[in-house]
Every structure is written in C-alpha cells, then in structure tokens.
C-alpha cells in the first residue's frame, strides 16, 4: 500500500514486564475505516493507545500519515491524529463546561475564533447550542459521547482512533453515534481505526478488519467476509459463530442501518 | 425571568451564568444544613468582631487599671477584669483579630503548598513521588506541636514565627490528601484526552488536576482551622506565640492559670472563645464536605 494513513510494523507493546501485544503489523489507507476486532484482553485498545502515545513502552515502527511516531504524546502529532474513548462518563472533566472542554484544544494550539468554532462543531456533531455551557453531569451518555467526538475533531485531525465508541451506550443511542461517525467520516474525509468487539458494528462502519487474539493478529479480512463467513483462521470462525453469524440479525446492527441520524 | 430562574437555568447562555448557577446550587445546599448554618454564623461573627473590634470593645485591650484588678463579671465588665485590671471582654474581642490572622495566614501558606506538592507527586509518580512523599513523611512523623515548638524556639517567640511554624507543620497532611486524590484520576480518560490534544504537564496539573483536589482541600482546611487555633493557643499558652501585651487567647488562658481557683473568669472567658470558634469551623467544615463531595457534582 502506498502512503498509508497508519502503518504499523513488528509492533510489540508492554506494560512493565508483561508483553501484551506481539508482532502486530498492518496498513490503513487514507480515508479507509479499519476495525480491530477481538475479545476482551486481546490487546486491541493497547494498539490504539500506543499509536496515540498513551502506552509509550513499545518497539517496532508506527507511522501516521507518513511520519514516524515518537513514544510519548506531542503537540504536533495531536493535530493529525485524535482519539475517542470508550466511556463517555469517564472522558469528560466533571468540573468543566462543554464550552471549556471544546475550546481547550484551540487554546493549547493558539488557534483563534474559538467561540465560532465551538458553535460550529456543536452543530456538526448534532448537539443543540443550549448544551454549550452545561456541565457533563447535565448530559446523557449519548450527548457526552458527541462532546467527546467534537473535542477530538476540534483540531481537524485526519486520522481518528475510536476505542469502542459505542459500547458504553444503549442500543438506540449506539445507532445514533455510529451514524454520526459515518457522516463525519464522509464529510471530513477522515481515516478511522476503530476498536470493537461487536461484529455488526464492523459491518456497518468499516471496510476491513483485523482479528486479534492473545496479543497477535490472527487474520486480516475484508468486511464482505462477515456476510459469507469466509474466514480462514479457526479462531475467527469461532468468533463469527459466537456473534450469531449474519450480522443483520443483530438488533444493534439492524437499528444502526435503519434509523436516521437525527442531526 | 427572576434572578433565581436565571441562576437555575438548565441551559446557561454564558460561562459566567453556568458558574454562578453552580455556586447558587451549592450555597442553597449548604444553607439547608442547620449545623453548617450555625458554623457559618459563628465564623461570620468572628469576622465581624475582628473587623469592628474598636467599636465593639468598650475599653482598650491593653489599658491597665490597677484599682480594678480581678473584678468578677458584672454589668460594667461583662467578662470581668484580669490581674492588671484590663477588661477581659475587650481583650477577647481584640483577640479575634489575632486568631483570624493566624488562621488565615496558615491557610494561605500551607494549603496551596500542600496542594501543589501533593498534586505534582501524584501526577508524575515514580521518583518524583518518592522524593516528595519522603519529605512529607518526615514532616508527618514529627508531632505537630513539638515541631512547631522547635521552629519557634529556633526562630524566636512571636506571632509571625508562630504562624510560620504552624504553616510548616500543617502542609504535609494536605499534600497527602492532594496526592491520594490525584492518584484516583491521573490515568482517567479526561486527563489522557488533554495530553492527546497536546496539553503540557503544567497545564494539566493547574487546570485539570488542582480544581478536582480543591474541594476536599477546602473541607480539610476548614476542619483543620480548629486544630490551628488550638495549636496557636497552645504556643501562646507556652509563651512562644503572641507576646504580652497582645491579647492572644492562648496567652490569656496561660496568664489566668495562676488565679484559676479564685478568679475563674480570667482563664475561662478566652477558653470559651476558643471553643466557640473551633466549633464553628468544625460545623462549617462538615457542612462544606456534604456540599462539595465530588460525587454530588455540585447539587441536583
């Protein structure tokens, strides 16, 4: 693949002395939506954290938009790549208004016209302006996740890392957030790397998927494999069978494909 | 729209309105707690007394009148007079200024110091944590009053040195709390999100970590006020705090000790003042804890 948006090679990640991810490598094309699938503890979120700079103890190569990645977080990188966390109840500061949360990235990077940009972004993620000066505890889970997505988009990154962005939400809200993410990707030409253990979400959102088990990638498959079950690896076949085969039978997946994003 | 509706508006239009609304919710919650109100009234009384001392006190706190020595409480001298014929009520009133000065200065010096040391230690962890907490542990392992005594002995007796000594002994407890508090959310996603958008460590500590530590710190400092007053009184009692003729409550008790059996009021009246003010701060601290508990997130 030429000029991949995200490229990982021989990536090993450790927490202290324990190696949790071994020998992971894949490329994500610009504009592509790529899923990392696997059961809990398979190391999918750790891969995301290493790319974001939050799990600095790794060896191998990570590059984003052609630039090799350092081991920590840095300011320049933050404009190209942002992350949305799993739990919207834990990802917003309890004492800061939505306005403060959204203008902070702009303040850090010395970007002007903050007020207009916050208003604009609230509109883009489908939040009414009256939420602007509320505190997080005055918002529902889905609304919080919209704020978290808005915060990640404030610096206009091209690459978004999504760490199970809907798993903490209930089914109807999941569909709204997935539709929002799909629309944002289309409108802003974003590249998604998404961690999930929900195969219907993959079939709704993603073009390709990598299946992880015990810290290794066992298979990289196109999304079409989800319709006909043409997986090569036995573990992947088990995972597919356990999720009930045809993803459209799943209520979350069905809701996601039918309901309209209200925004 | 009434001011109350404006304050309680679900969708504030500006940041100021959001913050004022939050403050309003907290203060109404505080005022619903009778003990907290009692504490608040006592502390306000202390403030008013200190502010208007020259108008409240009927006599000078230092003016002696040897013909009126050791008079019992009466209509003329509400709390009696001491061994030099000074009106004890006037001295207690003026003493509130000294007490307030001690309490305020100790809080202003030790709370921010402890807060920053604790937050830095908790946020960075590793060797920074080990060094800072090692120092804190050394200070914590020494008894407060003894350490304060040692400092005053080294610096010389006096009200300023007593304040410095108490401040030096008070900060380690705050550092401990701030560190424990910081540890609970240093790896939380909202802190990681700030790192991801490029926020510096200093920004994270001052803008994101400290605001979350301050509420428990305010509660703890308010509750500690009683202890600070008692320590100051203890230093005064031992003759290492405020020096005569300053009307410091602890020193006044110390002077009254000689006559405690025959002229009980000399030592008892400033003692009442100490008890009342300590109690006021304790009640207020308890009420504040109920209101500022982070889990309540600023009321309903």
UniProtKB/TrEMBL annotation, chain A:
A biological process from GO: transmembrane transport
Subcellular localization(s) per the UniProt record: Cell inner membrane; Membrane
CDD domains: ABC_NikE_OppD_transporters
Enzymatic class: translocase
Species lineage: Bacteria, Pseudomonadati, Pseudomonadota, Alphaproteobacteria, Rhodobacterales
Catalytic activity: glutathione(out) + ATP + H2O = glutathione(in) + ADP + phosphate + H(+)
The enzyme's E.C. designation: 7.4.2.10
Membrane topology term: Peripheral membrane protein
Chain ranges of the ABC transporter domain: 6-239
Record organism: Mesobaculum littorinae
GO molecular function annotation: ATP binding; ATP hydrolysis activity
Biased composition (Low complexity): 242-257
Protein name from the UniProt record: Glutathione import ATP-binding protein GsiA
Protein's job: Part of the ABC transporter complex GsiABCD involved in glutathione import. Responsible for energy coupling to the transport system.
Family: Belongs to the ABC transporter superfamily. Glutathione importer (TC 3.A.1.5.11) family.
One GO CC annotation: plasma membrane
UniProtKB/TrEMBL annotation, chain B:
Span of the signal peptide: none
Gene3D superfamilies, per database record: MetI-like
Biological processes per GO annotation: peptide transport; protein transport; transmembrane transport
InterPro entries tied to this protein: ABC_transport_permease, BP-dependent_transpt_permease, EH_dom, MetI-like, MetI-like_sf, OppC_N
Pfam families attached to this UniProt entry: BPD_transp_1, OppC_N
PANTHER family recorded: D,D-DIPEPTIDE TRANSPORT SYSTEM PERMEASE PROTEIN DDPC-RELATED (PTHR43386:SF1), OLIGOPEPTIDE TRANSPORT SYSTEM PERMEASE PROTEIN APPC (PTHR43386)
Protein name in UniProt: ABC transporter permease
TM segment ranges: 35-57, 98-125, 145-171, 225-244, 264-285
Keywords: Cell membrane, Membrane, Peptide transport, Protein transport, Transmembrane, Transmembrane helix, Transport
SUPFAM superfamilies: MetI-like
Cell location: Cell membrane
EH domain residues: 15-77
Recorded family membership: Belongs to the binding-protein-dependent transport system permease family. OppBC subfamily.
